[in-house]
Design a protein that fits this description.
The complex is a heterodimer of chains A (210) and B (108). Chain A is mostly helical. Chain A has a single domain, classed as Cytochrome c oxidase, subunit III, four-helix bundle (Four Helix Bundle (Hemerythrin (Met), subunit A), Up-down Bundle). In chain A, 74% of the residues lie in helices and 0% in strands. In chain A, α5 packs antiparallel against α6. Chain A is elongated, with a radius of gyration of 20 Å. The termini of chain A are far apart. The longest helix of chain B is centred in the first third of the chain and has 44 residues. Chain B has 108 residues and is mainly alpha-helical. Chain B has two domains: 74 residues, no CATH class; 31 residues. Classes of the chains: A mainly alpha (210), B mainly alpha (108). Chains A and B meet through α1, α3 and α6 of A and α1, α2 and α3 of B.
Chain lengths: 210, 108
Amino acid sequence: MAQAHDHSELFPEVMPPEPEKATLEGKNKFFGIWFFLGGETVLFASLFGVYLALKNSTAGGPSSQELFGLGLVFIMTMLLLTSSLTSVYAMYHMRNNDFKKMYLWLGITGLLGIGFLACEIYEFAHYITDYGFTFRSSAFGSAFYALVGFHGGHVLFGICWLTTLLIRNAKRGLNLYNAPKFNTFSIYWHFIDVVWVFIFSVVYLMGKVG
Amino acid sequence: MTDTKVNNMSKESFRRQKSREEMQKQLISFGLMIVLTLVAFAVVAMDTFHKGFVIPFLFLMAIVQAGFQFYYFMHLKERGTGMAALLIYGGVWAAFLTLAGLIVISWW
């Protein structure tokens, strides 16, 4: 491993119990992702606040009760919640230094994320073609697509991030250089699920109640 | 085998044991999150309860589920995560103020 620079400390014979936080860079990444997520919380809160303020301003267009169907939202919730568990499994295998199993579970996480995104695209297409409900239909439409679409954008970003990680590190095996990278992604992915919990509760379920 | 090697091995098997127990707790919290989700959907689907009950109830279910994610799935309950917790709760606090502000100006 020692080529131009000596990085042998990143490839120990025995992996430490928490490989993701064994190096200074790993500790900094852990700190950084939580700092970033603190900011993301405020950003999503603003979008939720706008949605709550405008959800009844339908301008004569379809309301949340007419639009939303609980079946699809339930499937999407299960897909994302399960993908959260599979990424926990991936981090479990990372801590046991089992690179192949970590890759397997991260792959399943990505596939579940793609499934979620496919459902969301189907849902939006259904609203647009069957109800003529778009971003420009009403203040409710703008607030709805801004909030839910921004979350969907985060899922898409997460899938691109994961794909890049999986391709880039496929031949490297697990070491102290890439363990923090996988862990940072995993924390981000859980956060996306936390945001979805509030979206299905506040937007869809409360939208059905009225 | 030298003593240190034996010691390292028992340490490793102890760590794996701990790790397995941790995984079981995470499976249990996953089960509980599924239950919370089912309850939230069921309360809305049944359509028998009053709005004044359903809305605060849905908020409560969501907050409990977010707590499970933070503490079990995102490992916030492990040692040495105080700073991370401070950052995310700082964000949650600012988020609460943002939401409260927007809700107050739009409802009154």
